[in-house]
Please model this.
Amino acid sequence: MAAHTSKINAVVGSKCPKCRVGRMFVGNTYGFKKQRMNDVCPHCGFRFEIEPGYFYAAMYVSYALSVAQGVTAGMLTYQLTKSESPWIYLGVLLATILIFAPFNFRYSRLILLHYLTPKIKYDPRYEDELPE
Model:
């Protein structure tokens, strides 16, 4: 019997929420090619978009991530510069949003499927089927 992948490791590794083996995304988070999400899990066949328009809900998760990143960047900017110029903060916030956009795209969908969709149940049988 193989060791089972934790939910956190499955999210970090961009794995399917049902089998935690198949990859949800093709390619890296950052790179010259556009990120692409698989329609179905290449290992277990689970359809990621549970219903039409399902990933619109990921926008709320992405927004929460962006706010947390923006607040953190703003506070770090203040601690490092002690500046009162709004232009410095605006530049830092815009750069933060642009830099983290690919990360937020990927991980908002992963968080939505792994943590915020209770009807998806992890099935350890798929990991047990893997050759040692």
Summary: The chain has four helices and two strands. Residues 85 and 95 are 16 Å apart (CA to CA). Residues 86-115 form the longest helix (30 residues).
